[in-house]
Amino acid sequence: MKKKFFLLVALATLFSCAKEEFIANKGVQVGSVNPLESTSTKLCSQSTLISPQVDILMLWDNSSSFNFVNSATKASMTSLINSVSENFDYHILSAPLVPNTTTPLYESILVAKNNTGLNSSALGILKSKEAAVASLAFSSGPGGAEAGVDRAISVIEQNRSNGIFRTGAYTIIVVMSNEDDKSCELSTGYASCSPYDIDQQLNPKINKLLCLRGNTFVNCSGSGVTPLDSAMMRFINIAPLTACSSGLNKINQRYRKTAKALYEAEYKADQYGNKWPTSNDHLSPDITGAPDSYDLCSSRFDFNHIFDGVNTAIKQTLLKHKYDYWPVAGSTSTFDPDTIRVTRTDGKVLLNRAVDPSATNGYELLLDSGGRPASVTKNTRFYPTPGEPFTGKMIRLYGADGNDKIVYPDCLTITYDGVKSTYGYAYLKYGQPQVSTIQVFKSVNGGAYTPIPQSTTNGWDYIGLQFTSALDPNLKAVDLPPGTTSGYFIRLNGTYKFQNSTGQTTSIRVDYN
Questions:
Q1: pLDDT band at residue 461, thresholds of 50, 70 and 90?
Q2: Residue 63 covered by a domain
């Protein structure tokens, strides 16, 4: 009987235990909110946002009297390619000055930064820098007489549809010759080419070259060419400008005149009122009044530096770039617009002129209709031509060139913080709690956890099972997994709501069963 009594007592005691005493302890969850990220980006006008296109045609003298291809010129060409490869989307086409066949690309070699836009005929002659330099070789042209200006025009025209010469690019023509243009003699015979005849032959060719360039005041009606609308076109003449054995005592005049004409020809303004300025880099180291001409007979001439002038002419293009828009961040980036700081190379901090409709300096962040940073596509550069487009968050620059519109070589450093978020909930990742067991603590930067009191006004309270869509959209939840649509939450109230901030990691610890 005693045994039955004790058994009944034991069973009664067992069933009198609270149900929750048999629920496993759900434990401790800690959720941390990382510090607000600060981003600083420096961009410079000489390091263009999108590489300008530079197309170079190199016509190598392949007459029987002279050979420009040697170890020194190969080394110089390597230097040229290395120079343009740093900043430009380049195409460099090497071709014989005197064609051997009617095949447009016979013995031609192409070097390019990439193969974008090139068709099969161009890809067939595309080589690496090393292979291109190593394989430079041209068979002697028939007859030896050259018509270099015509040759330049025809090579460019024949190689536009295949993607080698591009509309809007910087176009550089380099003619290497130990003689001169002989198109007059080839047309009328050597005995009947007076200075008048030479001009009558050469001037229309120069005009045609300018029509090919585009943005010209020359009458191009009937020229038969479609303009490249080159951002800049130069004709670099490497030839005998004085008498010497290398030039076979044949002083170059016609290529010199062509180089000077293109150098000095004014550019017509485009639809935006912008134009490429007349060249002013005075690349005439050997003969006064002969810009872009280099004397093969000069004692200073060095095959190792044969293309230095080409490098200088190309680099001059960067001196002209001016900007009235500037990138801030990519299309998908988010940041706090109130934290933007724009600083120029010299330390000047540009002022935010968002509320000034008549701003004469400073900048304005482009916003959408909701007042948020807008993702737009705009040309960053307005001079010498609109270009260097960027898609993303941008600022507009106000003022004069250099104050505060950016002109080479200035840089801008743009600093901003990520978007601040206010945290007002904690997601209970272990499911439904026993409310009486909940304890909530807060820690900053790894310090000791301090308790948060239970309070609906200044502390925490349990709000149970909730759809995330029903929560305050202005408040975020600690520990909420991406894509979660519902769950159990506690709410942070009063001063216990917190924001992510620079240099501060905030952790919320919740203990519950």
A1: very high
A2: yes
Question: Are both 291 and 147 inside the same structural domain?
Answer: yes
Is the pLDDT score of 14 beyond 50? no
Instruction: Give the per-residue pLDDT at 496.
Output: 97
Residues 237 and 376 in one domain: no
Residue 85 pLDDT level (bands cut at 50, 70, 90): confident
Whole-number pLDDT of residue 25: 55
Same-domain status, 157 and 297: yes
Q: Do 430 and 413 lie in a common domain? A: no
Residue 507 to residues 315, 357, 487, Cα–Cα distance (Å): 54, 44, 20
Given a cut of 90, is residue 371 above it in pLDDT?
no
d(CA 83, CA 317) in angstroms, rounded, equals: 14
DSSP string, 207-230: HHHHHHH-S-SS--TT--------
> What whole-number distance in Å separates Cα of residue 113 and Cα of residue 117?
12
Is 279 domain-assigned?
yes
Average pLDDT, the chain: 85
Q: What span, in angstroms and rounded, lies between the C-alpha atoms of 231 and 243?
A: 35
In a domain, 11, yes or no: no
Question: What are the residues whose beta carbons fall under 8 Å from the beta carbon of 382, sequence distance 6 or more?
Answer: 272, 274, 322, 323, 324
Where among 417, 452, 474 does a domain terminate?
417
- Single-letter amino acid, residue 226: T
List CB contacts of 178: < 8 A, sequence separation 6 or more.
Answer: 61, 63, 65, 66, 239, 240, 246, 247, 248, 250, 296
Would you state the pLDDT for residue 474?
94
Q: Which residues contact 46 (CB under 8 A, 6 or more apart)?
A: 87, 318, 408, 409
**Same domain? 338 vs 482:** no
Q: Are residues 345 and 396 in the same domain?
A: yes
Residue type, position 54, single letter? V
Residue 8 maps to a domain: no
| pTM, rounded to two decimals | 0.56
Residues 434 and 485 in one domain: yes
Q: Residue range 15-31: average pLDDT?
A: 57
CA nearest 492: which of 444, 442, 437? 442
What residues are paired with 443 via a beta bridge?
A: 507
Query: Is the pLDDT score of 180 beyond 80?
Result: yes
Helices and strands of the chain, counted as H and E runs: 9, 26
Domains in the chain, number: 3
Q: Containing domain of residue 354, as a range?
A: 322-417
